[in-house]
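Lecture notes, structural biology module. Today: joint structure prediction for complexes of two components.
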Amino acid sequence: MKRRGAPVITENSQAYTFTRRALVLGAAQGVLAAGLAARMGYISIAENERYNLLSDENRIQMRLIPPRRGWIVDRHGQPIAINRSDFRVDIIPDRLKEPDRVLGELARLLQLPPDELERIRHELKQAAGYQPVPVAENLAFDKYSAVMVRLPELSGVAPLRAFSRFYPDGAAVAHLIGYVGTPNKKEYEAENKSPLLITPGFKIGKEGLEKTMEQRLRGKPGAQRVEVTARGALVRQLTTLQDVSGQPLPLTIDGGLQTFAARRLGDESGSVVVIDCLTGDILALASMPAYDPNSFTDGISQNEWKMLSQDERHPLINKALNGLYPPGSTFKPMVAMALLQAGIDPEDRIHCPGGFQLGSRFFRCLGRHGSMTMHTALARSCNTYFYAMGRRAGIDVISAMGKTLGFGQKFDLPVVSQNYGTMPSAEWKKRKYDDDWSQSDTLNTSIGQGYVIVNPLQLAVMASRIASGLNVQPRLLRERHPAPAPLPFTKEHFETVRSGMWEVVNGAGTAGRSRLELPGIEMGGKTGTAQVRRIVGTQRGQSGDWKYRDHGLFVCFAPTSNPRYAASVVIEHGMGGARAAAPVAKDVLTYLFDKERAMASLAKFEEQWGGTLAQRMEARAQKWLAEKAAEKARAGTAGGAAGAAGR
Amino acid sequence: MRGGSFVPAPVATLPWRMLWIVFALAAAGFLGLYSAAGGSLLPWAAPHAVRFFAFLGMAIVISRVRTDRFHDLAFVAYGGGLILLVLTLMLGAIGGGARSWLDLGFVRLQPSELMKPIIVFVLARFYSHVPPREIRRWSAIWPVAVFLGPPLLLILLQPDLGTAMLIILNTIALMFLAGLPLRLFIGGAVAVAAALPTVYFSLLLPHQRERVLIFLNPEADPLGAGYHLSQSKIAIGSGGIFGKGYLNGTQSHLEYLPEQHTDFVFSAIAEDWGLIGGVVLIILFFLLLRWGWSVALEAKDRFDRLAASGLTLTIFFYIAINLMMVMGLAPVVGIPLPLVSYGGSAMLTVMICLGALMAIDRRNRLNRR
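The predicted structure, tokenised, for the full assembly:
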């Protein structure tokens, strides 16, 4: 026994101490073993779920499958924007270990031309790491699979079967539909760095409806779950969650009409807007010249971009919404409505001696029209009548009517931007210029000049509202809308203005040459010619440099017996509404009633112009490139000579 | 003799009760290494098996040695071990950079490993010669510091903190068993607890300090230095009760689990076989240690008693620290799991321990008869 105090330690007691202490240590080890088993049980039972999740997070990677974009279809269900299956190869800069070897291998496999290689190298240098750099798109399957097979030795290369956007009508729908492209850094950050945006092959709407309706068109990405090792090597594919493609987007647009209108504009710079004047459905919203949205899908080339942005006809601007023009005489039907509203008898006559004297200033008319009623003044576009009567009615009633009929207004449309121009009023001038409204301002406004600027859509809306007497709201999406309410003006007023517009085309009017050649269907309209710059001497913008010529405008509706369609046509620098715009309007409206006749007329024009829209665009591009090359060559020889001289 | 004429006497007299446990553990290691290699004998499973049988043969040879020899040769072995340690340091310096092993061609020998059983023998011999009445005196303590000093210094110079710590723990446990007064241990524990902050801030190298911090909070840096711990716990935890199935462990096969063939082999096995497999391993180790204690308790001689318990403790500390480490209860120190982990030196040490234990067991049985 071990005693406390002064213990006497013998060999026996020491052996006893050893046994006791060994048992203590043994027991401690048993407790530790039990503790370890308990700890392990805790980890593997209580925390099993958590660790299972972590283990799966380790080994399973989600690879997003970009969703197929919803189709954009016209009012008849005809496709305007669709998806085409596309084999593509991208490089993820972050994962590219040996750029030179990998690029060389890719160039060999895909037979990449040297300038493409140069582009890829350039883009790799500028790439932000996360953003895939496209190597090749629309690949043939054998080339695609050649890359697929060698994937293990091509780190950073991502072959993908994706879908690319395709617009069968090409340039004809460019401004309306827009285009898609690879998201840029700003867009990526705007969506909280959503991984979808940096998924190779994913495209985002960049312009037009593709941009404004992005969320609806996008759909939900699919996902592929793959098992990977700690080093990132793919072991096998697990489940694949199919993507949910975006919803189709039915438009009010009539695809055939849209394309026809775009083609009919020919080489002119201008726009055509057609509206169903009973519902507000926009049937066509064409702006020319345009770009080919298909070439933006794969990323546009430097050359192409330069060519588009340097073109004086501004193919990158949607003129139907963003082009602003003085409406000129196309304003007069609205002014006539205002005059009637102001209580002016349409039979009241004004004598036109070739102009109107206001104080010391003489406001010119285009001719000496003699005695004019509202009807004849509309038909022959007599400025004097509108000067006199506008002055009598005053700016307030004109301005109010202009706003009611759509001028100065922005419409509720899913478009990237609308330039809504100016419908001036006394209050507006005070605010803008801190100046009082003058009589001469009223006179200018009465004939659609001065401060007034409008866009082609507003012109078409005005035509629609006058044609139907309804407060139609233009719309692009085929959805349920309330029927438009009638405008608060008497029927007789509309009849008076419409009969004047009938006379323009079908009687002794300015657009007599553009009456419809259709049995029983007549068109009412109003021509307009808008000055681009102030009249200098006798030159009235009818000749000289293209960019100083007058704009030609035309608003119209048909049939006059029971109006259904209204349209506006603007031909930039077309020199006159009757000359440039009305014939286009005639053909476009003809298309709505008799496609074959309209197409036959178009075929003749296109023959004269030298091919279809696509052919002419291609020819222009070739010509442009040739000119650039020649310029470069000239600069090269000149530079060389200078260099030699300098030495 | 047991087993009659069917089994030759030298085989029949082997301690089969313990050998089955050792076989089971080595088999678990073999299966685990086969799985960790993605279902392949190479590079780990086959060498492991070969090494196991070679070292087991060596252990059986050791078991035939009379325990007096361990007593007599303790200091000779101690001297040899020191020479090897110095040699290691010198070759390391020549080769450039720290090194803890000597390349013998067929095996990379870690002299620090060899030093573990040698120190046990030295201490057992020392305490067997201390007269019982002097065990509570200062003279029973300071010589230990003299024995321990040189090898510890050499090991710390390598630097191999893990092995040094194991030797110190082992020594303390052995001193406890030798009968040193209890108050020394209690007081020592208090002193160590008080000194811990000083050690942490002044003695530990930055990477060691980091390991301690990560041990305390591994999730803070799951991809950096806490990676080992996190991945080990994920492997064990995701195995669940029954495991993911043999050869199905994703943590080990997809290489998320580092050192899956050495220090973290237990986690790899637990991932395949689950809690059940892990508990079976723990039970096997417990049985092995229980056998070791029974040998120590049965020993008549004080040297045998102390040597047997010291050797058992050596094996115990390997197991305990490795298992605590893989379960996130101890910092990551490079200590393998005896008989199961791939690697020669640790297995050599453990087999020397087991061989010596068998020798003591043999003597116990001869005494019994």
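Point to remember: Chain B has a mean pLDDT of 86.
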